[in-house]
Design goal:
Elements lengths: L1 E5 L2 E3 L21 E3 L1 H15 L5 E8 L3 H11 L3 E6 L6 H15 L3 E5 L10 H9 L3 E11 L2 E8 L2 E8 L2 E5 L11 H7 L4 E4 L32 H11 L3
Amino acid sequence: MRILVPVKRVIDFNVRPRIKADGSGLDLANVKMAMNPFDEIALEEAVRLKESGEAAEVIVVSVGPAKAQDTLRTALAMGADRAILVEHDADVEPLAVAKILKEIIAETSPDLVILGKQAIDDDANQTGQILAGLLTWPQGAFASRLSINGGKIDVTREVDGGQETVRLSLPAIITADLRLNEPRYASLPNIMKAKKQHVTIKSPADYGVDCTARLKTLKLAEPPARSAGIKVPDAEALAVKIKEMGVA
């Protein structure tokens, strides 16, 4: 079985994003970037499937700027076998990403695609579902556990009020949730080895995909500062204060 894992370069989740003074977007100057955490979980699951003998090859792909090669090399250091970068400097919306992935899937013929349920920069949570629709493949979104059963895959997913397990025929699309696994750290020898590995560079035009933006961000703004709390002596005073505030 061959597994394809799309990964995205985003601001490191430990870094507090800064908004540009004019509100036109995020200030990325001198900001630490990293692999999207949900994609990291997806990659870990793919590598585990390879280590267990269920998969023979793990391919990682990213759509983004040239610096996304660093993210792909991290993926190689974690255990991926080869990497593809579809280089594009501007932001790429989920529909265009899904169209590119569809063409890469036609080219590489994976049996399974595992990707993060969403990227932490835009929180779109759309690419996996759109890709499944374009391919007419079954999908298991928000996966918290996977198991391979012959030509089928059982996906336990978190739903309102509990869990649901679905059985999908391969090929299929899986989107990873936080509780699927705990990603490994890449070892120093693997990091050094990954620096020498080849990354295939492509462009959206190679796949016949137009990445022209269909959405326009009008403005970004910080959320309002949280106001200080108010102490009241007893429940009666609390009821009065709530009524004054017009909450009840």
